[in-house]
Amino acid sequence: MNTSEISLRSSDLHIEPDWPIERKIRFLQDFLYEHFFDENGLMYAMWKWTADELRPFRRSDFDGYSFPSSSDGFGPEGHMNQENSSCYSAQFLWSQVERFKATGEEQALEYAAKSFRSLDHVFKLTEDAGHRGYLCKPYHGRVSTQTSPDQYIFSLVPMWNYRAIAPRETRERIDYLLPAMADWWREHNYRINFFDMEMSGCDSDPWHNPGMTALNMMAWLITRDAKYQREAHRLIGLGGMMPTYYDIERRRLLETGSVYQDWYFDGYLSDESRKDQTLIDFESRGAVAMAVWPMDFFFEHDFARAPLFKHALARYWRHMQYGLREDMFSYYTIQVDLERDTWATCNVPPTPESVAKPAYNWHFCAYYNEVCWGDSVARISIVSAIAHKYAGEYCPGAPALAKKVLTRLDDTRLKWMIDPDGKQLLPPDRWMGEVTGEMLIDACLGYWYARAKGMDI
Known about the structure:
Elements: H1 21-35, E1 48-49, E2 54-55, H2 76-82, H3 85-103, H4 106-128, H5 149-162, H6 168-187, E3 192-194, E4 197-199, H7 209-223, H8 226-239, H9 245-256, E5 278-281, H10 284-287, H11 289-298, H12 306-319, E6 334-337, E7 342-345, H13 352-356, E8 372-373, H14 374-378, H15 380-391, H16 398-407, E9 417-418, H17 439-452
Antiparallel strand pairs: 1-2, 3-4, 5-6, 6-7, 8-9
Helix pairs in contact: 1-17, 3-4, 3-5, 3-17, 5-6, 5-7, 5-11, 6-7, 7-8, 7-11, 11-12, 11-15, 12-15, 15-16, 15-17, 16-17
């Protein structure tokens, strides 16, 4: 079916807040399986979701609005529909692997196979274009020059865990892809271009390093080629004590007297006298999941670093909770006083100067506000379950936090961006509050992972 022809009723994606958690999860996974793959088997990333309709984005949906853009030439509908198709396919795949472990349901294998085919579809697109091991962002269902580390990192553990229960042909395909992915990053010196900006140092970045290490360790276990083992050992050395973003900035504060200053605007501070100690934070709390997921692999294939991994998990888990409200919404932008270990919201209206030259050519980056990011909360359930499984003594309350997130699931919490009072997203950006979010998938993953590991959620 052509994307422009797909249209459901808004009520086709609806969960009652008081449903038992398992009923919510089964509803979501059935909805995803039945509706969230295009005619070529590629899983969608985000859909438009208003009071009147539920469907993939169309170009006309952005008329009169601002949206991110780059010189790659893709349209906003391709950006929203497929930017994270690989990530979402992999996360849904992992959820169904864990579901099969927890229940033995044959349907879980059917759902997993469909998810893997979606992920593999992206690899086959790039292979047809002459690439090997390249996992792009498949805007408009085509090969693009854009990728990001999360496309790879969120795919590793799902594929590794799936290979234990996958059909022989699929396992052989995974055993080809994982080494090819490791080769791709090494050959590109862990450097990419994303949205016209160079992203380098993905081998040492605190959120990316664990995934790159795990990828090479997986490649070594599959091939027994020593180059992958050597690279894994090099990478784990670069990871050092596995710091969080805040840990790194606290070290900078200690050594230089100031955290990294890279503000778009003035006037955001709740206390001007604390400028040297205060940083602005956007997506690091959601990005921490990239460092956590490889832990599920590391503890099964330990580098004799289990005590370090445990402490790292505890710091990662705590890091995710900065900016988290009591109602289980999480602010997209916060300011963090690293010396006092406190955080506050940010509110800075747009100025003529900021509107004239915002990051990513996007009006949303021309101001700070108190909009909440659904995807950050979505990842808390799986991060909490992993933290409890492997470092429970350092993460008291992790299962309870995961359960609290899943218990509160409702239609609002399935959104990408959530405007708590209807005043945070300014008119050029209002469309952002009418988008499905990652919670559709991560709720399934967090729940089934916890169930498979014997947790009461």
